[in-house]
Every structure is written in C-alpha cells, then in structure tokens.
Design goal:
Layout: E1 4-7, E2 10-13, E3 15-17, E4 20-27, E5 50-52, E6 85-90, E7 98-104, H1 122-128, E8 131-135, H2 140-144, H3 148-151, H4 161-176, E9 182-192, H5 194-202, E10 214-218, E11 227-228, H6 229-243, H7 250-255, H8 258-266, E12 277-278, H9 287-292, E13 300-306, H10 313-316, H11 325-336, H12 341-348, H13 357-383, E14 388-393, H14 412-416, H15 425-428, H16 434-451, E15 472-476, E16 481-484, H17 488-499
Helix pairs in contact: 6-8, 11-13, 12-13, 12-17
Enzyme class: hydrolase
Organism: Parageobacillus caldoxylosilyticus NBRC 107762
Protein name: Carboxylic ester hydrolase
C-alpha cells in the first residue's frame, strides 16, 4: 500500500512499521511566528511536490529536561516556536472509514509533545483498527499569555492560543483524515492531565462544536489549571516586566527571541502557572459550568483518576515528604484554599496507620486538584442525559520503594499499550500483572472509540454507566472490579465540611 497521501495542502510521504503506516511532523497550521506570535493559528501554507513525513517536527518552546527527571520518557526533537505539527498512525490509507482517536498531551501546559515515545499510536492502530493522531500545541507563555488588557483588542485570544491550536488540529482532521483511512464523523478526543483539562475546555468552547463526538478525560477536567481573565492579566504583567517588555510595545513583544522570553517567564518560578483563560470571547465561561448548562450534552465520555495522583509531584518537589503536619497543612491551604478541620481529620485516619503523614495529607491535594473536578464533570453530564463511564487506576508502582503508589501519569503506558517502550519499567516497574491491566484499559479505550461503549470481553465484569443511583466506577488494578460509589465517603466529608 502506498505511503504517499494527498492532503488539502499537498502530498505527504510517510513510512511503515510492521502493519501500521505513519506520517509524522505534518503541519496543521502556519508557523506562529513574527506577526502571528500570540495570534490564533492560521491554515498551513500549501506546498508543491512531496513533503517528507517520516520524522517528527519540532516540539513547542518549553523548559529542558522537565519530564520528572526523564521518568516520563524524553523527546529528542528540537524546540521551536514553529511547532504546530501532528502525527498519524493508521492501518492504511485505503479508503476505509475507521474511528479516529486524537490525543492531547499533558505537562501542566508548560511542557510535553505529541512525539513522546509513550504516545506512539502503533498499538492502538494495530490492535483496534483505528487511526490515531497526536498533536503539538503552543505551551506556557506562547500558548497562554493573556495580553488583551495590556495590548488591546488584537490580542483578545492570546490567553487561549494553545487551545485554539488544538481546535485547528481538529479542523485539519475533519478536512484530511479520510485520506488516511479515518472517519471524520467518528472522532474521540482524549488527553491526560493538562490534556484532559484541554478536553474539558474543548467541550465548552463554541468553536470546537462538531469537531469530535466523544471524549476521554484522564486525570483532569475543565477545572484544572484554569485562569480568570484578571488573574491571567496579572501573570502576564509579571512576565512582561521580567522580559523588559512595556505594555503596548508590539515591536519588542514580537521580536524578543523565543528563548529569552521563555527564560524570563521561567525565572518567575511557581508564581506563574499556565492554562486556559476565561476571556469571555474564545472561552465565554467556566468549562464545568458550561457543562452544567448542557454545552456537551451529546458527548459520551470516559473520565477517571489515579488513586494517588499527587504522589508524583513529590518527585519534582521532594519537600512535600519532609514537612511536619502543621507545615504541610499550611502549604495545602495555600495551594487549594482552606481545608475544613473535619476533612483533615478524615484523611489523617484513612489508610494504613504506619503510612507517613505526607501520604495521608497528599490525598487532600489529589481530591481537590483532580477528583473533585472529575465528579462535577460526571454529575453535570449525567444530569444532561449523556453517557459517562468512570474509572480509578489503582495499580501501584513498586519503584522508589513504592512511595509513588498509583500516581499521576502512571496509567499512560497501560492505556496506549506501550509497556514495551524504552525506560517505561523505570516508572511502572516490571510486575507481571501489568500486561493484563494494560489489555483491559487499552481494549476499553478502543471499544469506546469504535462503539461508544468501553465494554469488552477482557473486563472482569460489565462496566456500567455512571448514574446517581450507584455511582459505579471500574477500578483498574491487580484485580480489576466494579465498585459502587468509590469516592462517596470522601465526597460526603468535603460536602459536610463546606456546610459547617
């Protein structure tokens, strides 16, 4: 079968890996440089002849070596502002109309790329007869610097450029994916962490309507890393001041070297975080509130978290594990707002008595940052009559003496069927039960993309839709099972704490 495919913009020469064809580094928008810096993405420039699509394109501007000390796999591609590329894996550019799965990577809207080996789409394409697309989008200052208040009308959309890039990639899929053996009317978007926050935001954005039919949110929701316009303006002011750019000085804004601007922003450390901005135009209101009003009532979804999400962040910031109970609580209150005393007591008496205090109290962070948004998203979708399947990932990695447990991002290689990728065992360990858990999740994601329902014969029992009666969730782990309302006690404690 031919690896040369004709798109609307020109011909692409791909490659083949056993039974799967791939096209990499495909431009889905113009390079967002010069006058287009901080502007919504524009359609790509057409080309003549055949463009080589056998190697990945540059990744978005981002800090070096941030991926948790290399735990999450490294990308070797160069960094550039010219980064709006996507990658495709397909069983064949043969005129068949296969379900399409579009992956949006995580990384706190700060780092990451669609070319990380963990997100290789070969297994999905080979095992599921689906077409997989992974994308890059603008990150950090380049994707989420809200300049409307400092530079006027022309920069209204600048705080959401990264999300608008994702919409541009989804439009490209609508226009071109048939040529790669995909069905533009059967698109599932899926993402993890900031990628799931992106999915949650896309569900609420008028511009994204009709570009996908289903969604999977792994460890994130439309409440994650979200900024109000006022907060985003404040952050933008700090970044510009640090970079020596005066409000309104467009020349300096557009000509400061990308690396210099990035370093100025990074030097501010955790004072500045990035994410979608409720700017009133591109993102009219809070994504989860939009779901409450029915913005995505026709979208079926899978949504879930890992059991010990926040433990991963002890890798980037080991001080979490060294603080006293009082210091920990002070820090948690600063990060996520005041935590009622009865809630603190609940967590202190949960789990194994021998567990260190930090393990117990980090569950507050897991709930506030990840679980709460998941539950609100699921509830509002169910109220609107949409089908929702909920899960929790419980497999605990044995690495680092087991202290990470079932941490954030651990499910990724299981979902992608990529446990064999180099370096994965440094994160997941090599316990034999990994294979079965991976099969259960990988096939559930495929079944959902194909049939709109994640059930398949490798699951231990029927995975029921989430409803207000049972609030059932699939627990993926050494002995996967369905559990009724696994988050119930925790949710009730928080509800009571809020009322008192």
């Amino acid at each position: 079968m031919n690896t040369i495919v004709e798109t609307r913009y020109g011909k692409l020469q791909g490659g083949k890996n056993e039974s799967v064809y791939y096209w990499k580094g495909v431009p889905y928008a113009k390079a967002p440089v010069g006058e287009l810096r901080f502007q919504p993405p524009q359609p790509p420039e057409p080309w003549t002849g055949v463009r080589d699509a056998t190697t990945f394109g540059a990744v978005a501007m981002q800090p070096d070596g941030l991926l948790f000390g290399g735990v999450l796999g490294r990308t070797t591609e160069p960094k550039s502002e010219d980064c709006l590329f996507l990658n495709i894996w397909s069983p064949g550019a043969d005129g068949k109309k296969r379900p399409v799965m579009v992956w949006i990577h995580g990384g706190a809207f700060l780092f990451g790329s669609g070319s990380t080996p963990w997100y290789d789409g070969t297994a999905f394409a080979a095992n599921g007869d689906v077409v997989v697309v992974t994308i890059n989008y603008r990150l950090n200052v380049f994707g989420f610097l809200h300049l409307a208040d400092l530079f006027g009308e022309d920069y209204t959309a600048s705080g959401n450029c990264g999300i608008l890039d994702q919409i541009a990639a989804l439009r490209w899929v609508q226009e071109n994916i048939e040529a790669f053996g995909g069905d533009p009317k059967q698109v599932t978007i899926f993402g993890e962490s900031a990628g799931a926050a992106s999915v949650g935001t896309l569900l609420a954005m008028p511009e994204a309507k009709g570009l996908f039919q289903q969604a999977i949110l792994q460890s994130g929701s439309g409440a994650l890393l979200l900024n109000s316009a006022a907060k985003a303006s404040e952050k933008a002011e700090k970044v510009l001041h640090q970079a020596g750019i005066r409000p309104g000085d467009r020349d300096r804004l557009l000509t400061i070297p990308a690396e210099e601007l990035l370093q100025a922003a990074l030097s501010l450390g955790p004072q500045v975080s990035y994410g979608p901005v409720i700017d009133g135009k591109t993102l009219p209101n809070h994504p989860i509130e939009a779901l409450k009003e029915g913005a995505a009532r026709d979208i079926s979804m899978i949504i879930g978290v890992t059991k010990d999400e926040y433990n991963l962040f002890t890798l980037t910031d080991p001080s979490w594990t060294a603080l006293s109970e009082q210091e920990l609580l002070k820090r948690i209150n600063k990060e996520v707002g005041p935590v009622p005393r009865e809630v603190v007591d609940y967590y202190l008496h949960q789990g194994d008595e021998a567990e260190p205090i930090w393990q117990k109290l980090l569950r507050i962070m897991t709930y506030r940052v990840f679980t709460n948004g998941m539950l609100r998203t699921a509830d509002y979708q169910v109220e609107q009559g949409a089908n929702v399947w909920m899960y929790r990932f419980d497999y605990e990695t044995p690495i680092m003496g087991g202290k990470l447990k079932a941490c954030h991002a651990l499910e990724l290689p299981f979902v992608f069927g990529n446990l064999h990728q180099p370096g994965i065992t440094h994160f997941t360990g090599d316990l034999p039960e990994r294979e079965q858990i991976s099969k259960q999740m990988h096939d559930a994601w495929i079944s959902f993309a194909r049939n709109g329902n994640p059930n398949h014969d490798q699951l231990p029992e029927e995975w029921p839709v989430y409803d207000f009666n049972k609030r059932a969730a699939m627990i993926f782990g050494t002995s996967s099972r369905v559990e009724a309302d696994p988050f119930g006690k925790e949710r009730d404690v928080w509800e009571k704490g809020k009322q008192n």
